[in-house]
Amino acid sequence: MTGPDLNQLWSDFLTAWPPERVRQMTLEEYTNPGKDDAFIYWVESRLEKLGRIWGGSAFKFGIYCRDKTVAKEASGGRVWGEKYAWLSKFGAILESDPYGPSLAVLCEAQLEIMGLLRKLRVKP
Question: What is the pLDDT of residue 9?
Answer without folding.
Answer: 92
